[in-house]
Amino acid sequence: MTNFFSRFSGRNSCLGVDIGTASIKLVELGSAGGKVELKNYGSLEVKGHLDRINDAIQTSSLEAMDKDTAELLKTLIESVKPGTRDTIASLPVFSAFTSLVELPDMQNSETAQAMEYQAKSLVPMPIEKVHLDWFRVGRGQDASGVKQQRVFLTAVPKRQVDKYKSIFSEAGLNLRALELETVASARVLTGGDGALTLIVDIGARSTAISIAQNGLLLHSAQADFAGSSLTQAISRGLGINIQRAEELKKQKGLLGKGGEYEVSTLMLPYLDVILSEAKRVKESYENAHSIKVGRAVLAGGGANLLGLEERASDALAIPAVKAEPFEGAVACPKMFSPVVKELGAPFAVALGLGIRDLNKQ
Ligand SMILES: Nc1ncnc2c1ncn2[C@@H]1O[C@H](COP(=O)(O)OP(=O)(O)OP(=O)(O)O)[C@@H](O)[C@H]1O
Ligand SMILES: [Mg+2]
């Protein structure tokens, strides 16, 4: 069993880099006296991503921006000027195969062997072409009292990992680890919290839906509707260009009145598809594990949509709140307080990556 990269310790600062389809986000985190603090952050929009919303063929935008990514990263580093080059970066949900496996409790070395064996039947790719990673998410007993463990398995094509390695080395960054975006958001949004949580990360091109608890990812899925679907609906409905529709969406959200009411009416059918997909994921997890999900946390840029919390609470039938990583896992210095409310949700993944090895010390 190979881990993507080994964990590194003894460092007191690290970069978390979230490569999304609409933007690249970077945070620099530092740790001192057991506390992790935001030192700096930055994000760059992927050029032309709004123009590509209307693409007939939804190419994986990751492919489209591949050659530009290293350049964007260099620009971001020049403007943020971080004090370290050590980086942990995100992999999109669609790039990996994941599964929650139940098996008898045993030592780590034996679990590693068992997971490799399990992976051969679970992963829909030749095992020699993927990087396997696993972590234990819980221990318990089966009906006959035999000790069991639940292990989360991730398999990522080696080709994908190699591509990222070369992009980051081209950008002059020291790539310490690659991690699934949902693993990172689970860590930062549910760390130290025993409540079973549904995380809905509404990005530009896709929505990552996951179930997490105590900082650990238990299940992750993806919906193809996201923020750009809402922008597109406004653009089509009002006959305005994508840029203007994007502005209107951010300005009015679901809270418009009178003439503005139309903006929310246009978005709601698409938003409801996202939320009903999230509800389906929640209910299928609840049914499979005979357990109830207690709350929802909304992340990604799309979580900044005005009025979303209320709509989501109704649709999901559980309290839904916007992600606030700066209220828990990461301290935010006063100089950033004017933007802290808007920063938490879109930067959740980057923050979760950044704290991965810092809070192990
Ligand atoms: N204030 C706001 N109100 C509504 N939507 C917003 C707001 N701010 C950002 N968004 C939307 O959030 C989306 C971008 O989110 P995010 O930055 O999380 O995407 P990404 O991570 O690049 O994309 P993906 O996760 O799909 O690869 C865009 O669709 C943008 O319009
Ligand atoms: Mg994203």
From TrEMBL:
Pfam families: PilM_2. InterPro entries: ATPase_NBD, FtsA/MreB, PilM. Transmembrane segments: none annotated. It comes from the Bacteria. This is SHS2 domain-containing protein.
